[in-house]
Amino acid sequence: MAATTIPVDPFDLVIIGGTGDLARRKILPGLFRRMCAGQMPEGARVIGASRSDMDRAGFQAFVRTALEEFAGETQCDDGAVDRFLDMLDYETLDVFADAGWKRLKKKLRADVIRAVYFSVGPSLFGEIARKLSDHKVTDEHSRIVVEKPFGHDLETAQALNAELRACFDEHQIYRIDHYLGKETVQNLMAVRFGNALFEPLWNAQHVDHVQITVGETVSVDGRGAYYDKSGAMRDMVQNHIMQLLCLTAMEPPSKYGADAVRDEKLKVIRALEPVPLTDVVRGQYSAGGDVDSYVAHSQNPKSTTESYIAMKVKVANWRWAGTPFYIRTGKRLRARMSEIAVVFKDPPHSIFEGEFNRKGNVLIIRLQPDEGITLRVTIKEPGPGGMRLTEVPLDMTFAEALGDQVAFMPDAYERLIMDVIRGDQTLFMRGDEVEAAWAWVDPIVKAWSDARDKPEPYDASGSGPEDSLMLLHRDGRRWREIKA
Ligand code: NAD
Question: Rounded to an integer, what distance in angstroms lies between the CA atom of residue 350 and that of residue 371?
């Protein structure tokens, strides 16, 4: 049974940077898949805009190629690509020049939802906001979608927020963190707040610790110079991992709504304790196989930027006092694996003999590969021979449990763009959340910069630096294995 989709209201979606990499790989194929799923209304229009000098036919040809390359498996009939191309228009526009904005404005309709996606580098965000407002391309009903990175530190994030808020109200600003659009991330909320089973146990009394892992096999080759200015802390922890941590740690919101959820996330960020350098491990991958080292990729032999980071994080509130959150993320690791593991405490007393029988349960929320949820439980080993216990997974891999519904499940970008059109900000970051996250990150970065801290080299295709193992060993715990 395929998932039911309700078409959204008619809209004009302008993609500034419509010929860029993100538009080509994610936004345009995503919109096409939503059309195939029956979610695009008759009156939907997508208007590409960028510096590239091309006309509507040129943009349609560009999008046709993008769909061939990136649309993947869809529910589409033969005429679908042509129907999608019919929805497209294009305007050549330099953000800094007035002429293009005037032409763009003429192309837009007054009576439909209007959204503008800033799919360009962040240095242009402020100028685009001003131009949209000065030329009245947008009004108080329009929405803007802003890509990452949202600032480089607290100061730049505040400046960017100020620039956007000078032209738009907070309820019009959709700051994308595509992790929030992932099915499993939303399922984390469904599991926590849709079942009576977990929530009573979701606290320091019953949870020993939480592990959040975002492991990648890829290197930074090709974007090393850019990455070297950011590093794992800014590129992954401040945004994606922070969001995962917030959804795991937050109090139940009073309802599933934008401000209720974001208020609770904000409280978590504000409750994060400063992290001492002794609770941070940074690493840089060495050369391995036929892949060069991090410093070669960054083209900076003296680089002290981390391609791996592990931290012990404490949420200083009543619910989590004494339960650490261990987080780690890195490039060039053994496997691509992202998960949240909630490790429950061992049973307080064993009625069975032997060591094996006092394992705590683990709830694993897997983002990749094979999105799904697993609960590890202890059962009796089958067969004669007395009471021997073993651990088995209660496994809910979505692809197996939900069949067809998963085959055509929207990816994160598709879902989030449709949320913009629906006017639902629940899965977007609010300005104060982003600033609070930077306010926590900045002193940690400053501390290692002041201490001239150097990242530890780690073997490519391993599980990160040795010291990251010690981070847990010294607490009598260990990381879950990184494996595909
Ligand atoms: P890109 O360089 O491939 O594309 C940039 C687009 O902006 C092009 O269409 C270009 O013509 C247009 N552009 C640049 N300067 C312009 C100007 N002055 N006036 C008008 N148009 C101009 O970049 P991208 O990879 O598509 O990234 C866009 C944004 O998305 C960035 O903020 C990036 O950090 C973010 N992002 C990208 C990805 C990805 O997978 N590519 C993933 C996550 C976030």
Answer: 34
Q: Residues 372, 395: contact at Cβ < 8 Å? A: yes
Burial of residue 99, with CB atoms counted within 10 A of its CB: 0-12 exposed, 13-18 middle, 19 or more buried: exposed
Domain ranges of the chain: 11-147, 180-411+430-473
**Dist. CA 228 → ligand 1 center (Å):** 19
Q: How high is the mean pLDDT in each 10-residue block of the chain (484 residues)? A: 73 98 96 93 96 97 96 84 97 96 96 97 96 97 95 97 98 96 90 93 97 97 94 97 98 96 98 98 94 95 97 98 98 96 90 69 91 88 83 79 69 94 97 98 97 95 94 96 86
> By the 8 A CB rule, do 15 and 54 touch?
no
Q: Which residue has the CA at smallest separation from atom 38 of ligand 1?
A: 22
Atom of ligand 1 nearest to the CA of 24: 26
Which atom of ligand 1 is the closest one to the Cα of 16?
A: 21
Q: How far is the CA of 19 from the centre of ligand 1 (A)?
A: 8
For ligand 1, residues with CB inside 6 Å are: 17, 19-23, 25, 50-52, 93-96, 119-122, 124, 147-148
Interatomic CA distance for residues 14 and 430, integer angstroms: 22
> What are the strands, taking DSSP E only, across 345-479?
362-368, 372-380, 389-397, 456-458
State yes or no: cis peptide before 443, omega within 30 of 0: no
Residue nearest to atom 25 of ligand 1 (CA): 21
Residue 168 in tokens: 């738009």
What CATH architecture applies to the domain 180-411+430-473? 2-Layer Sandwich (3.30)
Active site residues: 240
170 SS3 class: helix
Q: How far apart are CA 395 and CA 375, in angstroms?
A: 7
pLDDT tens readout for residues 139-170: 999 999 999 999 999 999 999 999 999 999 99
Q: Assign a CATH topology to domain 11-147.
A: Rossmann fold (3.40.50)
Whole-number Å distance, alpha carbon 22 to ligand 1 midpoint, is 7
Query: How buried is 451 (Cβ within 10 angstroms: 0-12 exposed, 13-18 middle, 19+ buried)?
Result: exposed
Q: Which long-range contacts (CB under 8 A, 24 or more apart) does 57-61 make?
A: 58/90, 59/18, 59/19, 59/88, 59/89, 59/90, 60/85, 60/88
11-147 with 180-411+430-473: one CATH topology?
no
Strand partners, 392: 377
Find out whether 144 and 115 touch, Cβ atoms under 8 Å. yes
Between the CA of 23 and the centroid of ligand 1 the distance, in Å, is 8
